UniProtKB/TrEMBL annotation:
<feature type="domain" description="DUF1996">
    <location>
        <begin position="32"/>
        <end position="280"/>
    </location>
</feature>
<keyword id="KW-0732">Signal</keyword>
<dbReference type="InterPro" id="IPR018535">
    <property type="entry name" value="DUF1996"/>
</dbReference>
<feature type="signal peptide">
    <location>
        <begin position="1"/>
        <end position="17"/>
    </location>
</feature>
<protein>
    <recommendedName>
        <fullName>DUF1996 domain-containing protein</fullName>
    </recommendedName>
</protein>
<dbReference type="Pfam" id="PF09362">
    <property type="entry name" value="DUF1996"/>
</dbReference>
Length: 335
């Protein structure tokens, strides 16, 4: 379990108040149907997990559970799509190589992908006092700013962090910038979404204004939602482990500088961002939020790692993203 969440829930007397599950890779391609619907290719590369109805458009009225035939996620009723930018290594000679992903603890056999969390609550009497409302059909949101390049630009976002893993079990400390030294077990990128919804809009033009953070405190500490966004929803979090081990030789780092770049050309780390399009079947997510649940959730259907890994979609952009590249796809200015 992620360290900060584990500590918070332990202090509040609950360690089963969140849903944690792995999702294998669906596709890595230059599409972003939330920010750039219909655009092929989109400006930068993303790694996508979830249901195989993912496509270039993803209209708000899309019926993701019925349009999908499989999902890369452990819980087979989750046909949502989740995606983030992609990490690249820049070598001393100026060429780039995509950094692979590895499975998190408990999901080591997954085909890359991410670990997803839906936090339910933190109090022992949460079923009576503090139920969270599951996202609705058509709901979508975005966290982060792909254009941000300084800490000041991302202060409005909470808990977009990195962990320089000393070993697979390390979960702290967390930083807001990309690590500036070799990380023995890779780099974990963490994205935590806001937890208060306005109760009206399934989306907004910037994919953020319908969501807000607690007025005080945190979701884990039962911080109250602001009056403008009164509906408490699950705290959604992504964990991605980037396997930087093959790139840890400082002699290959140009001038000893941090050599990793996000796919939109950001080497600071402040441009990290994540997209979410809700697609759970029927009331499956609400059932899970109404019951104490962790990895083994009796209210949900679970599929095997083999089934997760076998789900994929065709890369419709069809551009070179692997091996040594002269430039990051969509970012020739960095070459």
């Amino acid at each position: 379990m992620h360290w900060s969440i584990l500590v918070s829930l332990a202090l509040l007397g609950r360690t089963d108040a969140l849903l944690r599950f792995g999702c294998s890779q669906l596709v890595v391609e230059r599409l972003d149907p939330l920010v750039n619907p219909g655009l092929n290719p989109s400006p930068h590369l993303h790694q996508i997990i979830g249901g195989n109805s993912f496509n270039v458009t993803m209209a708000p009225d899309k019926d993701m559970p019925n349009d999908s035939t499989c999902t890369t996620c452990q819980f087979s009723e989750d046909f949502s799509n989740y995606w983030t930018a992609v990490l690249f290594f820049k070598a001393r000679n100026g060429s780039f190589h995509r950094v692979p992903q590895i499975g998190n603890a408990g999901f080591e056999d997954s085909n890359g992908g991410m670990t997803v969390y839906y936090m339910q609550d933190g109090l022992s009497d949460y079923q009576q006092k503090s139920k969270v409302t599951a996202f609705k059909k058509g709901f979508r949101m975005l966290i982060g700013d792909s254009m941000a390049r300084s800490k000041a630009e991302v202060k409005k976002f909470r808990q977009l962090t990195y962990t320089c893993l000393q070993n697979p079990g390390t979960r702290f400390p967390e930083t807001m910038n990309l690590p500036d030294k070799p990380c023995p077990a890779g780099i974990m990128a963490n994205l935590r979404f806001p937890t208060c919804w306005d109760g009206k809009n399934l989306d907004t033009p910037n994919h953020q204004d319908h969501m807000a953070y607690p007025a005080s405190g945190t979701f884990e500490s039962q911080g109250p939602c602001p009056a403008t966004h009164p509906v408490k929803v699950p705290q959604l979090m992504y964990e991605t482990i980037w396997d930087t081990r093959q790139f840890n030789d400082p002699s290959e780092w140009e001038d000893g500088q941090q050599p990793f770049y996000w796919s939109m050309g950001d080497s600071t780390g402040y441009g990290t961002h994540g997209d979410y399009v809700f697609g759970w079947k029927d009331d499956a997510l609400q059932r899970a939020m109404d019951s104490p649940c962790y990895v083994n959730c009796p209210t949900l259907k679970t599929q095997s790692m083999t089934a997760m890994n076998s789900c994929s979609v065709k890369d419709v952009v069809e551009e070179q993203i692997d091996g040594w590249l002269d430039a990051i796809p969509g970012n020739p200015a960095l070459s």
